[in-house]
Automatic annotation (TrEMBL):
One of its GO terms (biological process) is regulation of DNA-templated transcription. SMART domains: AAA, GAF. Pfam families: AAA_lid_14, GAF, HTH_8, Sigma54_activat. This is Nitrogen fixation protein VnfA.
Length: 646
């Protein structure tokens, strides 16, 4: 190492004060230390002894980025372009004869330094070229640092957002936050996230900033967003009003002016487009590749957020439905002995997986009983799926129950999952089973025996774990006898049978049911719960209820919406309960008035005693009679106490 020679930076010969360009090199050395653009132009102005130094850049037109002193009133566009293209400095005089020097920087963003001042001389071009080069390098460096910082900021924001997904359960709030962050980070005026409702062919903007209520619905085939989702590609628009794809309706409505925009599609985990993310009006210049990448990152987070929160919302909603059902809808209302007994039976059966056949007239609450069996049992958290067998032809029923593969038949344009699969882990309720075709019965029987289904047009056997409940208002035993219903299927379905009594046979349930429905419908009609007067109660109890509980429910719905008073009076029901529909149909059979009146009185007393569960004193009070007068009246009508006791 004997030949080793050292030289420090300050010893370099071209740095000696006497050396040509030594001061330029020292100046450039200082320039690379400067971090802020205002300082940079101030230093340069001082070095060249000029009052004005600006840094300009070409966007759509030439713009001043930063300036020391008043910038030139108008920038010489053509000359600036030449400076960049030729990568050459130029000294010239401006319109008012003051000297100007334009220096190329060779920066990636094509900046040019513009110097002007009376003492500026063409001999300074050499020095100017050197300074321009150094400034260009410094700008590239600063740009890289700013980009890296933006990237870090972006990542931090993304992590922050991902973190907040856990705490934020409401989609709207979360989307608003994402949009706000995107505006901040990408220096944009507005941001909207669109969720695509493919079925309704709608785009739902949330948040739709500047729109009253924050929600905006648009047809999915219009505007830039429509093009973005259909093309599944990002779109950048620099000048919205000259772009024919831009739909000006929203601007017209809101009074806002869209200048430029950037829109990216949103995809779910399967690559399906689920919406779009749009940024409007970048605060400085046009949208660039960096903005595009950032927005795509935001897009990924947004898709996750939408999926998570929507799933959560669905869960919450179905849970709420469930709770609501358990507390109201599935509640079996009634105080009669038969309904009390039914509640006990359901409680015992709910815990089992036994098939149950629910019998009863139409509207007696067979589906309510089936739902109670489901919701009180271990399958409650899984789906309850109801199928009305009477409403479907044999072919449709098969595809409805077991599903079909794409192309299985002419209309099968896509794969369809059947009700058995949908009810997986839960309960399938086959309503009106008595109306199922014989072919359908055979297929159902096979599934019940083998516990596997095959979709129509498919070959794969899909195992199913479903509890099957069935209901009918037909006499199935009779149907079996007449060979309209398969006996083997009947035995499979009717391991346990429960029968719902008609409403006319349990008059004590009428008032509790009426109050229950009235309360529910008054809430729907936004009015206070209406009490029922005792006259109206009597009127309800005297009706024959051929349509059973459904008829009562419908009546209460009309009362809640139509009656004017604060209380339901008998008159409110009179116009609804038509006398012809009462139990005394045979009044019109030509019997005399006296006999008809007797018949009516006998029936009325019978119902009153039944309503009072056989207590004669209560029945007399109900009928507004003294107890002894009731007995006398009964004797007159040829009635025995045993005839009337339930
Ligand atoms: N005990 C009950 N408690 C509360 N609501 C009931 C009761 N029974 C019936 N309902 C209500 O009455 C209406 C008819 O009941 P549901 O549909 O269960 O009858 P259904 O016997 O299955 O009728 P269908 O034979 O026409 O299928 C429903 O709105 C149901 O909520």
């Amino acid at each position: 190492m004997e030949d080793t020679q050292w030289m420090s930076w300050v010893e370099a010969p071209w740095l000696q004060r006497t050396a040509t360009y030594s001061s330029l090199i020292r100046f450039c050395e200082r320039l690379v230390q400067v971090d802020l653009l205002p300082e940079l132009v101030t230093e340069i102005a001082a070095e060249f002894g000029v009052p004005r130094c600006s840094l300009v850049a070409r966007n759509r037109s030439w713009e001043t980025i930063v300036s020391r002193g008043e910038p030139l009133a108008s920038l010489p566009g053509a000359l600036l372009a030449d400076v960049v293209d030729k990568d050459a400095a130029v000294w010239t005089t401006s319109a008012d004869d003051s000297p100007v020097m334009l220096l190329p920087t060779a920066s990636s963003a094509q900046h040019v330094l513009v110097l002007s001042g009376p003492r500026l001389d063409a001999s300074q071009l050499t020095e100017g070229l050197g300074v321009g080069r150094v400034v260009g390098q410094r700008l590239n460096q600063l740009n890289r640092v700013a980009k890296a910082e933006r990237h870090v900021d972006r990542m931090r924001t993304m992590i922050g957002l991902a973190h907040s997904f856990a705490g934020e359960k409401d989609t709207q709030t979360l989307l608003e936050r994402i949009a706000e962050e995107a505006c901040r980070l990408l220096k944009t005026d507005r941001a909207s996230i669109f969720i695509w409702d493919k079925e309704q062919k709608l785009l739902i903007a949330c948040p739709a900033l500047g729109v009253e209520g924050g929600k905006l619905f648009l047809p999915d085939n219009k505007g830039i967003v429509g093009d973005t989702i259909h093309g599944a590609k990002p779109i950048v628009v620099d000048d919205a009003y000259t772009d024919r794809r831009f739909d000006q309706t929203v601007d017209k409505k809101s009074g806002y002016t869209t200048r430029n925009l950037l829109c990216v599609p949103l995809f779910d985990a399967d690559g399906e487009c689920i919406g779009a993310f749009e940024l409007i009006n970048k605060l400085d210049g046009d949208f660039n590749d960096d903005d595009l990448n950032s927005l795509q990152d935001f897009g990924v987070q947004t898709s996750i957020a939408i999926k998570n929160t929507l799933e959560l919302e669905n869960l919450v909603r179905s849970n709420q439905n469930l709770t609501e059902r358990v507390s109201t809808g599935v509640a079996i209302i009634g105080e009669s002995e038969s309904i009390n007994a039914l509640r006990g039976t359901i409680e015992r059966l709910a815990a089992t997986d036994l098939p149950v056949l629910v019998l009863g007239e139409s509207g007696t609450g067979k589906e309510v009983a089936a739902q109670a069996l489901h919701h009180q049992g271990p399958r409650a958290a899984r789906p309850f799926v109801a199928v009305n067998c009477a409403a479907l032809t044999e072919t449709l029923l098969e595809s409805e129950l077991f599903g079909h593969e794409k192309g299985a038949f002419t209309d099968a344009q896509s794969t369809h999952v059947g009700k058995f699969e949908l009810a997986e882990g839960g309960t399938l309720f086959l309503d009106e089973i008595g109306d199922m075709s014989v072919g359908g019965q055979a297929k159902l029987l096979r599934v019940l025996e083998q516990k596997v289904i095959t979709r129509v047009g498919g070959t794969q056997s899909i195992p199913v774990n479903v509890r099957v409940l069935a209901a009918t208002n037909a006499n199935l035993v009779e149907s079996v006898r007449e060979k309209q219903f398969r006996q083997d299927l009947y035995y499979r379905l009717s391991v346990v049978t429960i029968e719902l009594p008609a409403l006319r046979d349990r008059p004590e349930d009428i008032v509790p049911l009426a109050n229950f429905f009235l309360k529910r419908f008054c809430a729907d009609a936004n009015r206070k719960p209406l009490p029922i007067s005792s006259d109206a109660e009597k009127r309800l109890q005297m009706h024959g209820w051929p349509g059973n509980v459904r008829e009562l429910r419908n009546l209460m719905e009309r009362v809640a919406f139509l009656s004017a008073g604060d209380r339901v009076e008998a008159e409110d029901l009179a116009f609804i309960l038509s006398p012809q529909r009462d139990a005394f149909d045979d009044l019109s059979d030509g019997i005399g008035l006296a006999e008809a009146t007797n018949k009516f009185q006998r029936e009325y007393i019978k119902r009153a005693v039944k309503r009072m569960q056989g207590n004669m004193s209560d029945a007399a009070e109900f009928l507004d009679l003294h107890r002894s007068n009731l007995y006398r009246k009964m004797r007159q009508l040829g009635m025995e106490v045993d005839d009337v006791k339930p």
